[in-house]
């Protein structure tokens, strides 16, 4: 079953925030500043600021979900851009 990227792009910021909070809660991770960016007319989501250990845990969770070891991602040279895999969109 594929992901419906069009529906994800059309989601409002409130829906996106609630979905992300729920997904993170299942992993035990909380982003305290996660919310809607009220200062933007673009409907942006504010991911907020986190401690380095929280950012690292989020990186590990995303790497596990993508089946890519974090060490492989960290081997990229600083400042190098990572490109999307074939069939994977860049957001």
Description:
- With 91 residues, this protein is mainly alpha-helical.
- It has helices spanning 5-10, 13-27, 52-65, 70-74; strands at residues 35-36, 45-46.
- It has a two-stranded antiparallel ribbon with strand order 1-2.
- β1 (35-36) and β2 (45-46) form a beta hairpin.
- The relative contact order is 0.10.
- The model is unreliable at 76-91 (pLDDT under 50).
Q: Biggest sheet: strands side by side, in what order?
A: 1-2
Low-confidence stretches: 76-91
Task: Please work out how many helical segments DSSP would assign.
Answer: 4
Radius of gyration: 15 Å
Which sequence of SSEs, written as H and E, runs from N to C? HHEEHH
How does the SSE layout of this entry go?
Layout: H1 5-10, H2 13-27, E1 35-36, E2 45-46, H3 52-65, H4 70-74
Quick recap of the structure?
The protein is mostly helical. The chain has helices at 5-10, 13-27, 52-65, 70-74, and strands at residues 35-36, 45-46.
List keywords for this structure.
globular; mainly alpha; single chain; two-stranded antiparallel sheet; disordered C terminus
